[in-house]
Amino acid sequence: MTAEFATPHRSRSHIPPEPGKPYFVEKGMGDRAHLFGDLFTIYAGGEQTENTFNFFTCEGPKGDIIPAHSHPGTHEVFYVIDGAVRLFVEDTAGEQYEKLLGVGDFGFVPKNCPHAYRIERHHSRIVGVAAGPGGTFERFFETLGAPTEQQGLPREPVVPDGDKFRTVPQQYDVQFLPEHQWRTPSGNGVRP
User: Fold this and answer.
1) DSSP one-letter code for 163
2) Which residues are CB-neighbours of 91 under 8 A, at least 6 positions away?
3) I need a labelling partner for 66 at 20 to 30 A (CA). Which of 21, 86, 134, 153 fits?
4) Considering the entire predicted model, what is its pTM?
């Protein structure tokens, strides 16, 4: 059994709102949000780590590429624990990379590097960690998407309206790149 807390973001959370307090979260009981067809679960964030890193999972079905974006001040890690995820990354010199990550594979995206991903197998799960001078962006998922108490994937995709896409990312060190094209073999010039 985990304790519940009220936080600045939720009336009910399993994550304490202040730093310096040890805590434990049972499987799947972090702060959950639906965004697109995915379920994001936050286990640690800015409040607990003094804005030094966050720790979250993303679970989703096989689907479309997530829109290209970058984090001007935040490094991001992708570690696949189930299924497969194709990671697209462009370095600061403009060279593009693409890698299919399977169970146990790891991908690192430095700050300021455009990136996107596509879940390639149903029931895929990614562990994500973000850290850097830009702080953390874990509350992006529930602010752009929809907070949920549900532990599974959304019944219908949660697609934010245009106003949220224009305003929310700026708060969380996320810059969407709608004109970005992937020139990698699986990207085929596609704009996500």
Assistant:
1) H
2) 97, 110, 113
3) 134
4) 0.91
* DSSP-based three-state secondary structure for 137: coil
Dist. CA 100–CA 124, nearest whole Å:
12
Q: What are the φ and ψ backbone dihedral angles of 98, each rounded to 5 degrees?
A: -140, 135
Across 61-95, the runs of DSSP E, i.e. the strands, are 69-70, 75-82, 85-90
Distance CA 100, CA 17 (A): 36
Q: What string of pLDDT tens digits covers the 192 residues of the chain?
A: 567 777 776 778 888 887 888 999 998 899 999 999 999 999 998 888 888 999 999 999 999 999 899 999 999 999 999 999 999 999 999 999 999 999 999 999 999 999 999 999 999 999 999 998 777 888 899 899 999 999 899 999 999 888 887 788 878 889 989 899 999 888 766 554
